[in-house]
Design brief:
The structure holds two protein chains of two kinds. In chain A, 72% of the residues lie in helices and 0% in strands. By secondary structure, chain A is mainly α. Chain A has two domains: 60 residues, Helix Hairpins, CATH 1.10.287; 89 residues, Monooxygenase. Chain B is an alpha+beta fold. Chain B contains 15 helices and 27 strands. The longest helix of chain B has 49 residues. Classes of the chains: A mainly alpha, B alpha+beta.
Amino acid sequence: MFDFNQSYFKLFGLSEQFALDTSKLANAFRELQAQYHPDRFVNADDKERRVALQSTGFINEAHESLKSPRLRARYLLTLKGVEFDDEIDTTSDGMFLMQQMEMREALEDAQSVSDDSETVLDAVEKIGKEVKGLSQSLQDDFVSHFDTDNLVAAKEAVLKMKFFERLSKEVKTLTEKLEDDMF
Amino acid sequence: MALLQISEPGMSTAPHEHRLAIGIDLGTTNSLVASVQSGVAKTLQDQEGNTLLPSVVRYLENGDIVVGQDAHDSQLDDIANTISSAKRLLGRGVGDIKTLAGNLPYSFDTSDEHSNVPQIKTIAGNKTAIEVSAEILKSLKKRAEDSLGGELKGAVITVPAYFDDAQRQATKDAARLADLNVYRLLNEPTAAAVAYGLDQRDELNESENERIIAVYDLGGGTFDISILKLNKGVFEVMATGGDSALGGDDFDHLIAEWILEKSESELTHHALVEARRVKEALTDNDEIIASIETSEGDWSGLISRADFDEMVAPLVKKTLMACRRALRDADLEKDQVHDVVMVGGSTRMPIVREKVGDFFEKPPLVDIDPDQVVAIGASIQADVLAGNKPDDEMLLLDVIPLSLGLETYGGLVEKVVSRNTTIPITRGQEFTTFKDNQTAMTIHVLQGERETVEENRSLAKFTLRGIPPMVAGAARIKVTFQVDADGLLNVQAEEEMTGAKSGIEVKPSYGLTDNQIEGMIRASMDNAKEDMEARKLREQLVEADRTLEAIDSAMASDADELLSEDEVQTLLTARSQLIAAKQTAESAATVKAAIKHMEHEADFYVARRMNKNVNEAMAGHSVNEFEK
C-alpha cells in the first residue's frame, strides 16, 4: 500500500537535507513511476486505477518540490513546522528590496544601451549571470541558517529566493525576445 | 477446438492470451489505424488497400453516413453536408467558431442558446464535431476488427501536444461514442519517438544514460515540437511547443497566392488544389509547371524549387523559432539533442528537412513514412498497455501542455499547475474570502499562459457554498486540481473548517454532458444489433481458420500412421463442409455448427494422438516416476 504520509525525501530514499543528489532523485523517480503509473493499471479495476492516479500524483508533486531549490528549501522548513502563507509572507529587508529594484532598472536600461540586438543581448546576459550568482549565495545562506536551526532567517532566505526566481524568469523572457529578433 | 492442440505432457497447453489493441492517429486531414501483429507494428489497410482514411464524413438524406475517400471525393458536389477538418472544432465552444467559421464551408445552427457545443447543420440533422469524429473512429475500428478478426480490447488515440483539456475530453467523448475503450490519449510526437524504437537504441549505447529527442511534426494544419528525454525505457516529455494554426495548408496558400498574382485571377478552390499538386511535385522535381483556368483563359507558369523555398522560408523560420523556445523550456542546448524525428506529410518538403537539419546540426530521421509514424507508435504503446509485452519496461511520462489556474481578485489568473509539469498530478492551493461574511465563492478554472482571465481559456465555473460567515481573509478554502495521465482535469474546492465541499469534472464548458453522450449512444444502438452479429460472424470465421489449420497440421504429421483410408475420408468430408460454411459465411451460427461438426468427427483422432504422445513421452521412463 502506498504511504501518502511519508516525507518526500523518504519517498525517494534521500537524506533530509538541502544538498541534493540529482541523479539519485531522477533514478528513484523513474523507478517509482514504473511501479505506480496508471499506465501499469489499464486492465485493473476502478479502485486500483484510482489509487494509481493518486500515488503518481503524489510522486510527481514530490518530485517537483524537491527538484526546485526554492521549493526544496521551503519543504525542509515545513517539515520543521514552519508555516508559509503565500498571500501575506514577504521579505521586509529594505536593503534587499532596494537591490532588487536596482537590478530591475539595470535590466530595463540594458534594453536601451544600443540599437544593436547583440549588444543588448550581451548586457542582458551579464545581468543574468549576476542573478545566478546571487541566487547561489542565497542558497548558501539558507543552508547555514538551516543547519544552525535559525529557522526565521532560513525562512527569510526562502522568501527572497522567490524574487530571484521572478527576476531570472524576466531575464529569460527578454533573452528569448532578443534572440527572436536577431534570428 | 482446444483438443486438437496437443503438446508434450508437462507443457502448458494454454497459449499466451493476446489482447487485440490498436493505435489510432485521428488527424485533421487523414486518419490511420495500426496494430502490432506477431511483434511487428503495421498500419492496417481497408479493402481497397488504402492506409490513409480522409477525415471526411458525409451525411445523406436517407440517414446513411459515408466516411473517408468517397466522402472526400463528393466534397465539391455536396459541400454543406460533407464535414472535413472536424478536429479543428473538437472541444471548441460556440464563441470560438466565429473566428474559425470563415474558413469552414459548412454552416452552424445557433438557435439553441443553451448548447455550448457548436452544431453543424446537415441534411441528417445537427451534428457536433464529436459525432463527426466518432464516425471516423467507428470506420477505423471496423477496419481493425475486419483485418484482426476479433474483439478489440483497447485503443491508444493520439492528440496534438497542444490540445487543451476540453479538446482532449472531446476526443475521449468521440471514442466513447464509437464504443472504443481508450487506454490512453498519447501526444502525437511522443508516439513518433516510440515508433522509431529510440528506447531500444538507448541500450546499445552504454556510454550515455540519457537520450534527448526532438520531434518535429509539421502536419496539414498544425505544427508541434516536442523535446523528449529517454532513460532506461522511460520517456519523459520535457517540453512542448508549436503553433496550432501553421501547417502544410499554409504552404499551399502561399503557392496559390503566387499563382494568382502571376495569373491575375481570383482565389478559387482549384487554385488551392493546383498549389498542393505543385508543392508535392517539387519534392522530387527541381521545377514544375503550374496551370489553372482563369476567367481570361488558361494560364500556366514555371515555378522552381528555389522560388518555392524563398516563398516559404518565413514559415519554416517560424517553426524553428518554436524549436528554440521548446529547447529553452527544457533547459537544453541544440547540441544536446541526439535524434530529430520528422512527422507529418509536410516534412517531405526538401526545404523543411534541410533547414531542420541545419538547425539541429544533424540529419533528421525520415525512414518511417511521416504520415504513418504516429499511428505506428500509438499501436506499440497500445500493445504494451494491453499487457502483451509483460517484460517491456516502456513507460511514457507526459507533461501538461498548458498551465491551469484560477481567477483571483481583479480578473487575474493565479497559476496552480504550470505548463510542462509531469502528469498525473494533484496539487492544492489555499485561497481566502475577501469580503466580510462571504458565504459562497465562485471557482473559475482557466487554462493558458496569460495573466488575465480574458486572455485565457475558460474551462469551467462552479460555486462553493456553505462557507461560515467570518471576517474577510479568515476562511481557508483549499482548491485541489487533479490532472490524470491523459491530461484531463478534476477540480475540488473545500472550506477547511466546516468541510463544505464542491467539485467538478472539468468538461461542461465545451464538451458534451454525460446525458448528451448517453442519448447519442442510444441513438446508435439501432445499428448496434447488426454490428454485433457481424462481429460474431467474424470471430467464428477466425475460429474456423484456426480449426482448419490445426487439423491440417495434425494430418500432415501423422495421418499415415494413425488413420485408415476411411477415417481420412470422413475427416476430409467434414473439412470440406467447414470450408464451404466459411466461404458462404451466412451467419455465425452456421459457421459455428460446421466447426463443432469438424471437432466432433475428429474426436477419435485427437484421442489417438494424445495416447501416442503420452506413450512417446513415457518411453524409457518407469511408471513409478510419474506417480510421484
